Amino acid sequence: MRTIDWVDGRIRIIDQTRLPLELCTIDIAEVDELVTHICSLAVRGAMALGVAGALGMALAATRAAESGADLDSELAAAADLLIAARPTAVNLGWGVRELLLARAGGADAGQLLTRALAIRDADIAASRALSERGAQLLAGARTVLTHCNAGALAGVEGGSALGVIGRLHADQPLELVYVCETRPLLQGSRLTAWELGRLGIPHRVIVDSAAAGLVAGGAVDAVVVGADRIAANGDVANKVGTLAHALAARHAGIPFVVAAPESTIDGATESGRDIPIEIRDEAEVLDVAGRRVAAPGSTGWNPAFDVTPVQLVTAVVTEARTIRGRAERALPVPDDLTELTPAGPATTAP
Amino acid sequence: MRTIDWVDGRIRIIDQTRLPLELCTIDIAEVDELVTHICSLAVRGAMALGVAGALGMALAATRAAESGADLDSELAAAADLLIAARPTAVNLGWGVRELLLARAGGADAGQLLTRALAIRDADIAASRALSERGAQLLAGARTVLTHCNAGALAGVEGGSALGVIGRLHADQPLELVYVCETRPLLQGSRLTAWELGRLGIPHRVIVDSAAAGLVAGGAVDAVVVGADRIAANGDVANKVGTLAHALAARHAGIPFVVAAPESTIDGATESGRDIPIEIRDEAEVLDVAGRRVAAPGSTGWNPAFDVTPVQLVTAVVTEARTIRGRAERALPVPDDLTELTPAGPATTAP
């Protein structure tokens, strides 16, 4: 089953807000419905959002062709809505812009759909390739820590960080994966633990703040996470909490590896300082399971992402290459590592 | 209102499991009831547990005197029960042992109660003194981050880290206190936010993992936390998540200050490696608000504390002195700082 797909002229997604207790799909016929589901995180994750951006534009084109509306104005309106839905996630905008580029090249609604489906297929292939590359880099790691969900549910199939973990486990069984629950929305305990259970990989869920103590105490061989946007200098924006794991990894001298497709690399953004950080509703912090837990009258602050500077990153693995970060070398570094520079490629793939 | 007190021959505690929605007290007539409430965290926090240990022993002595049971065997049984309730919290054992020492010196039940009440009064005085010392050290800080609850609810009155914050605010109004919610039991959003609201101090609740990004981004002038045990070399055991904040503080070059009474310093424990870390029920991680959120079949791992090495600590403030940690100096260091050494005082106070 795919996390996001095109079925009978509609976008079909797994509704991740209902996992792990129910596995339901939603069929989406209009762009504004898709935006609602992106905002509620029913569909989420860097790679899946790239495909959602492309399929969303194809959906707008299909509807315009059916109704006889003006294709370009419908595409422009859809692009604005989609990009605004998750401002930090560069892949979403990337998928949207790929379709605008195809349109600028003269594509009609049918050709736009073909382009979106090619992006979906490329995502599956990219996941496989980057997982292999990451597993090679981390060969020998027996206990791994990950944050949030960079799994099959964050892409079309396979995923990024969980793709690496799945491949490591296939090569030689892992002893344990520590899964950070990932407050406030608990994508780790809900989604990553669910995926690892289906894959038969031994794992334990921890509160996010337990990671540093486990890493410092030598219980973890490597940290592997996904990314929502990688700036041209190698700074990584990912789910809030990632930076703390990177600091712990440096403290313990273990590798901190980011697994992400090339489309996550945003050559137009110079450094982490230039990445806008989405601030989400304070209710996600103040309420738990729909019930207020915080003291009455107290307010919250809910940044959805943080930025890990390239100085804390051991390497970024993509479907095309292994990019060396600037962390002190906790890994035997293969010869073919690339240094990412502000002049590096931005939107060359997939 | 006091968090823990002796009223009409019983121990009265505020039931912190019902805060912030209800403010209820519990009157405790037997040591095993007290142990139950310590385990459920109805009463918690380093300073309050020290007083709970002492009052618990006084309660055992009072009951023995009433029933004619053998005082020494009743005290020995109570001591075993109390110390086992929270193995990481050194103050609990300290309070218990102070009463055993008094008994070894010939105290009867009435004199044991007098000793326990003196420990309660000393706790109130210690909170006031260390708050003043911490506020002097951090004078000028306008935004502060704290973790868990080291407030009035963690002592008898006033608290440690929140005592410092309250005093800072009294000296010059603080702009903002970032309150880490403190998963799994949310003592930050439930208790610390409640106390700050009552004190009229502006604050925002954040998920624990958002702290590093805020600290790295320059939003925080200082981190102030309490401690559950401080080893002879200055390593600090505190609520799980503290280490990540200390790593973030070092990364950002801001002070990381620990506020704790002298009774928290355990001269018999050489370093953080020797501090036992309490592992609590995995259900605290896997369930939220009594409802399972983690994937069915997944297991959890729930250490209640972590250890921050002295290399990350700027200073420890107690009621008696300011102890220099080994973090690079993010503060103008006053001349009277003491270096804590393995030969330093252990149980000199209160």
Strand count, sense and barrel status of the largest sheet of chain A are: 8 strands, mixed
User: From the helix content, strand content and strand pairing of chain A, which structural class follows?
Assistant: alpha/beta
Task: Give the strand tally of chain A.
Answer: 18
Strand content of chain A: 15-25%
Overall, the morphology of chain A is globular
Query: Which radius of gyration of chain A do the C-alpha atoms yield?
Result: 19 Å
Which oligomeric state applies?
homodimer
Total helices of chain A: the number is: 10
Brief summary:
The first copy, chain A, has ten helices and 18 strands.
Folded structure, characterized:
The structure is a homodimer of 350-residue chains. The first copy, chain A, contains 10 helices and 18 strands. Chain A has an 8-stranded mixed beta sheet with strand order 6-5-4-7-10-16-17-18. Chain A has helices at residues 31-39, 46-67, 71-85, 90-104, 109-137, 161-171, 187-199, 211-216, 242-252, 283-286, and strands spanning 4-7, 10-14, 25-28, 143-146, 176-180, 203-206, 222-225, 229-231, 236-239, 256-259, 265-266, 287-288, 291-292, 299-300, 305-308, 315-317, 322-324, 338-339. In chain A, a hairpin with a 4-residue loop joins strand 16 and strand 17. Mean pLDDT of chain A is 93; it is low at 342-350. With 350 residues, chain A is an alpha/beta fold. Strand 14 (299-300) of chain A pairs parallel with strand 6 of chain B, so a sheet runs across the interface.
